[in-house]
Design a protein that fits this description.
The chain is of the alpha+beta class and 148 residues long. The chain has two domains: 1-31; 37-139, Immunoglobulin-like (Sandwich). The chain has one helix at residues 7-29; strands at residues 37-40, 43-50, 55-63, 69-76, 81-85, 89-90, 95-102, 112-122, 129-139. The strands form two sheets. A five-stranded mixed sheet has the order 2-9-8-4-6, with no helix packed on it. A four-stranded antiparallel sheet has the order 1-3-7-5, with no helix packed on it. The protein is rod-shaped and about 100 Å long. The relative contact order is 0.22.
Length: 148
């Protein structure tokens, strides 16, 4: 003997399935945002720099996500550039400082434009490695070549 489901039972089953779908969707939407790195500023130009003088600049590394941002590594494109961060873990809504030093004395004296990069590798799934572009125009030091 076959049993037939009544309209009420079918409606109840459909409502239950719809409710489970809504709960799953709500759970997805209620997930915290992953960490999100933001650099301030995103690039920097020191302008004219005497080729016998090192320069340093401070940057902010912000976490605009809802989970802690982990700074896994900080590397540079050249040995003449060094970088270090104050904190390796940045809580949501917080920031840490990044200090970058460019020392042209690591190379033979030269003049003209230079571009260097600092790379921050993090657990930000959208931007696992963020480049920071640094520019300078190397010039002769003041008084160089003056004969007194």
């Amino acid at each position: 003997m076959k049993r037939r489901m009544g309209i009420g039972a079918v409606a109840t089953a459909a409502a239950g399935i719809a409710l489970l779908g809504l709960l799953a969707l709500a759970g997805y939407w209620l997930q915290p945002d992953p960490p999100r790195i933001v650099l301030e500023p995103e690039s920097f130009d020191w302008g004219e720099v005497p080729y016998d003088r090192a320069v340093t600049q401070e940057f902010l590394v912000k976490n605009e996500g809802d989970e802690p941002l982990e700074i896994l590594a900080v590397t540079t494109s050249c040995g003449c550039t060094t970088a270090r961060v104050e904190l390796k873990i940045v809580e949501p809504g917080q920031a840490t400082r990044l200090w970058v030093t460019f020392d042209p004395t690591a190379h033979d004296p030269t003049t003209g434009p230079v571009v260097r990069f600092v790379y921050l590798r993090t657990n930000d799934p959208a931007n696992p490695e963020v480049p920071l572009e640094l520019r300078a125009t190397l010039v002769e030091p003041p008084g160089k070549g003056d004969r007194r």
